[in-house]
Design a protein that fits this description.
The chain has about 450 residues and is α/β, with parallel strands linked by helices. Helix content is about 35%, strand content about 20%. It is built from 18 helices and 19 strands.
């Protein structure tokens, strides 16, 4: 029986030509005619609510007006001045719960201006052809800053500092820069290697030296950075994943959803990537949706996302949930896993216990459900590497680094941002905003002569 179970996780479930179609852009780019028509719907509001809802404060009416005038470069400049990762955010940002949710066209007519797609149209238009650089680096200040983590927060911080004339050493633990933009977002959202193309554009500013394969793992390393550089920014992301803490978690066929997505993103030929025939994803956030949808796109006969609370409480947006259902993914609610069932060392199913709310707390409802499964993907959240913040003397809360309104940590002249900080939203656009605010404060401190990482 164990051999039979292992055979149910294998590659090549689809015809070879199906993979390219399944993992192409799930939202096609706008044509010029479509972009002009959509831009004409914008009311160019004064004190626009869409701009206020954007964590990076992109001047939405301004860039849309420029699209309407045929000035794509000007539109891209308006976007990228506020958000240097504007192209990625146009693809990955949940605009339906941010700028588009408060769009006047939405609140009055129920159909917002397609801000995200227009943003992508402008930025892609700039990067598609030969272009003069939008930004030039200021004269060198002679100051050196270490940025640890080349994810959205670190990239935004590094670019902003380089623009201001500081020299940046950008470190990342992975073989490629990009963080979750490269390794953790569904492939159908960032088709065509876009994450690396965007990074190449970012690095064109100059003054940024990238070093991959370097991981911050000890207090001694942080102290060395503080001695060598004038300031340090930590954009560490969340490297560890939470465990289910139930029997059977170590069975063959149980994996982290983040690692599953990472392997998918780095596999050149998706026909070689194994997937189960019956996949169960445990969790309710964007990672769960991405894992469930991509399992189905790889050829799983049944892909089921199971969440312990109700539909309204799911961290994933309604739009993402709808996308999953359109792709044939089943979403079940009010079920908590209690055991992964195995046979011959491999997964054969998951036993769940139905939940209900009692005085605001989840309690068992006295009913169980067992789902057959060949593959179980855990998407229940990530955390910082255990013990690292404490070892480095960084104040923390709920396992993440505490920072003030400028991104400063409790360690002198060390800043942090992105998913690794407390009270943050685990979204690319918020990570970019953190990196930019820290860069502004670092630059201010360096120019006022008050920053030096060794205190």
């Amino acid at each position: 029986m164990s051999e039979e179970r292992r055979a149910d996780i294998h590659p090549g479930r689809l015809p070879p030509q199906a993979y390219a179609a399944h993992f192409a852009d799930h939202v096609p780019p706008l044509t010029e005619a479509q972009a002009l028509l959509e831009a004409s719907r914008c009311l160019y509001c004064y004190d626009a609510p869409c701009m206020q809802a954007c964590p990076t404060r992109i001047d939405v009416p301004s860039f849309i007006r420029r699209i309407a005038e045929g000035n794509v470069r000007g539109a891209a400049e308006s976007i990228l001045t506020s958000n240097p990762l504007g192209g990625m955010c146009a693809r990955d940002c949940p605009t339906e719960v941010l700028c588009e949710q408060v769009c006047v066209r939405n609140t009055e007519q129920g159909l917002p201006v397609a801000i995200g797609r227009l943003q992508r149209y402008a930025v892609d238009g700039l990067m598609a052809g030969a272009h003069q650089p939008l930004f030039t680096r200021a004269r060198s200040t002679g100051r050196r800053v270490a940025v640890v983590g080349a994810g959205p927060a670190g990239l935004a911080c590094a670019h902003a500092l380089a623009r201001r004339g500081h020299s940046v050493a950008l470190f990342d633990a992975r073989p490629k820069p990009g963080g979750l933009n490269e390794y953790g977002i569904a492939a159908y959202k960032v088709a065509g290697g876009y994450a690396q193309r965007e990074i190449q554009w970012l690095l064109e500013i100059g003054g940024i030296e990238l070093q991959c394969g370097w991981r911050l793992a000890s207090a001694a390393q942080l102290e060395a950075l503080r001695r060598e550089y004038d300031a340090v920014f930590l954009g560490l992301g969340l490297a560890d994943t939470y465990r289910l803490g139930i029997p059977g978690e170590g069975l063959e066929g149980v994996a982290d959803a983040v690692e599953f997505i990472s392997h998918l993103r780095q596999t050149p030929d998706l026909a070689t990537l194994p997937v189960g025939r019956r996949v169960v994803v445990i969790g309710g956030g964007m990672t769960a949706i991405d894992a469930g949808v991509q399992s189905k796109l790889l050829g799983a006969e049944r892909s089921t996302i199971v969440y312990r609370r109700g539909e309204q409480q799911m961290p994933a947006s309604r739009k993402e949930q709808d996308l999953a259902r359109i792709q044939g993914v089943v979403i079940l609610h009010w079920l908590a896993p209690v055991e992964v069932l195995g046979e011959g060392g491999s997964v054969r199913g998951v036993r769940f216990e139905r939940q209900r709310l009692e005085d605001g707390r989840l309690v068992p409802a006295g009913e169980e459900l067992t789902l057959e499964a060949d593959m179980v993907l855990k998407a229940i959240g990530q955390r910082l590497e255990a013990g690292l913040p404490s070892a480095c003397g960084l104040a923390q809360r709920d396992g993440r680094i505490v920072v003030d309104e400028s991104g400063r940590t409790s360690v002198a002249n060390v800043w942090a941002g992105g998913d690794c900080v407390a009270d943050g939203e685990d979204l690319t656009v918020y990570a970019v905003a953190h990196g930019l605010r820290a860069a502004h404060d670092i630059d201010t401190q360096l120019r006022n002569g008050r920053a030096r990482a060794d205190g």
